[in-house]
Amino acid sequence: MNDLVFFINKGLLSGMIIGSIYAMGAIGVTMIFGILRFAHFAHGDMMTLGAFVTLIIAALLASAGVVLPCPIAFAAIIPAMAVTAVLAIGLDRIFYKPLRNAGARPVVLVMASVGVTLMLQGLIRLFAGVRARDMFIDQPKDIFQIPFPGATRAVILTEPQIVLIGFTVVAVLALHLFLTRSRLGKAMRAVSDNPELARITGINTNHVVWATWIIGGGLACAAGSLLSMDVTLKPDLSFNILLPIFAATIVGGIGQPYGAIAGGFLVGFCETLAVFNWSVLLRPIKDSLWFELPRNMALVPTEYKLMVPFLILIIVLIYRPTGIFRGRVL
Amino acid sequence: MSLLKISNLHAGYGQMSILKGVDMALEAGEIGVIVGPNGAGKSTTLKAIFGMLNITEGSIEFDGEDITGIRSEALAAHRIAFVPQENNVFHTLTVHENLEMGAYIRRDDFSRVMDHVYEIFPPLKEKRRQPAGELSGGQRQMVAFGRALMIEPKLILLDEPTAGLSPMFMSQIFDRVIAINKTGVTVAMVEQNAKQALAIAHKGFVLANGANSFTDTGRNLLENPEVAKSFLGG
């Protein structure tokens, strides 16, 4: 039973947590691709930026003497999402919009977004330094031990993890309702489907572009903040998860928000299950096995974790190039 | 005063000029048909009206207002609708959502217009929850027409509405065009099937090399031996 709890903790829960982060990042990347037709490489740093905005707002609230029943950083996420959304629109205004208006090809915008990535990384390091920071400035993070029937070990969940899972569920439902029920959400799908016809129909492309950055920026901020609460906030925090996010986007089908969610969780679970030490689960039945159980039987050594998303990506691109949800072909 | 008046229109893509002096005038409630050989600038004329081209000379007036070079997005507010030849529906959106998008610029209650569209195109009502991409070519064309009608246009521009459709659908489409026109909508249509189209046209414009070569009523053009010889295949 203890081994099962270990599996739940190290395999299922961590897969779900990293999957949620990937999913929220991938939703932004896939929607930006659907509407603006370019791969937004600065998305990882938009997550870091959002996390820093959360930290700054939390610090401001704390210095203003605000005391809340929950850690102040959680409350700071909501205004930080709004700030990050505005910053995202600003970045679009300054860097991407002039290129779009000049009729630049998508690859030029991709390069511009690489430039924005480097710029954001530089700016964040310039103002915040390179050290790791703790997002919990007013009180330590709570860790919940949920007893599991028949086991001495407990299922362990931290406060930010619970918030993250809850937030992801709410965000996905809200996104679904927005895209299928609201006028602007339908217009976003229309622009993603056929930009030329959307213009002819009189759909205001600017509003759609803003909505895209608000959703992308807001979710990036939430994901970045919650990820940095789960671990620590470092300037290179999200750059490392940018590649799995792109893998999740492509696996789900580019331009498909539901695909991004599925792809995010798929990549997240595959990653954690691939590095999970399976011998723990097999140990109880080791006498009936025909081979000697090694101490560590992970499919992939932890150092090579980053390889997993790419393996999935390659398999998907070979056997189903449009992704799970039939997105665009690159 | 004409509803649509195009004078000496020169337009093209970038520096390349395709239209070299097109003139057109349509009164409110008329059907105008643009015919001519391939590459004459028929579709280009519609695209120029709809702000999708570089206009270098000439002017387009609509309902007394100068709309030369206005952006495509802004034309719906003038109640001009355009049905392109290809990719004229949102494939991943349902039929109903396609019609809703047609009414995107309307902030008033458009359910009456929606009912009207479903009345003209009964098959659409049946398939309103289906993605438009799953429909047959003829039904997709109905969705495209319906989408355009949602703003209750004064002028509707149709770019080869019968292209790629079977002859049976073709006459159906022409019937619909007449029916739409009967409700007071002015129609400007580009057609390959020149004879059938001119037969329903109040005015016809025969273009060649980016300029008018004949302009007359539809009937007169059909009876004009010169037009018949050079453009209608005898």
Automatic annotation (TrEMBL), chain A:
One of its GO terms (biological process) is L-isoleucine import across plasma membrane. The chain crosses the membrane at residues 12-36, 48-68, 74-95, 107-128, 162-179, 208-231, 237-254, 261-282, 302-319. The keyword tRNA processing does not apply. Pfam families: BPD_transp_2. It is found in: Cell membrane. Signal peptide: none annotated. CDD domains: TM_PBP1_LivH_like. GO terms for cellular component: plasma membrane. It is a multi-pass membrane protein. Keywords: Amino-acid transport, Cell inner membrane, Cell membrane, Membrane, Transmembrane, Transmembrane helix, Transport. Coiled coil: none annotated. The keyword Electron transport does not apply. GO terms for molecular function: L-isoleucine transmembrane transporter activity; L-leucine transmembrane transporter activity; L-phenylalanine transmembrane transporter activity; L-valine transmembrane transporter activity. It comes from the Bacteria. Belongs to the binding-protein-dependent transport system permease family. LivHM subfamily. This is Branched-chain amino acid ABC transporter permease.
UniProtKB/TrEMBL annotation, chain B:
The keyword Nucleotide-binding applies. Residues 4-234 form the ABC transporter domain. SMART domains: AAA. SUPFAM superfamilies: P-loop containing nucleoside triphosphate hydrolases. It holds the Pfam family ABC_tran. GO terms for molecular function: ATP binding; ATP hydrolysis activity; branched-chain amino acid transmembrane transporter activity. The keyword DNA-binding does not apply. Keywords: Amino-acid transport, ATP-binding, Nucleotide-binding, Transport. GO terms for biological process: L-amino acid transport. PANTHER family: HIGH-AFFINITY BRANCHED-CHAIN AMINO ACID TRANSPORT ATP-BINDING PROTEIN LIVF. This is ABC transporter ATP-binding protein. It comes from Flavimaribacter sediminis. The lineage of its organism: Bacteria, Pseudomonadati, Pseudomonadota, Alphaproteobacteria, Hyphomicrobiales.
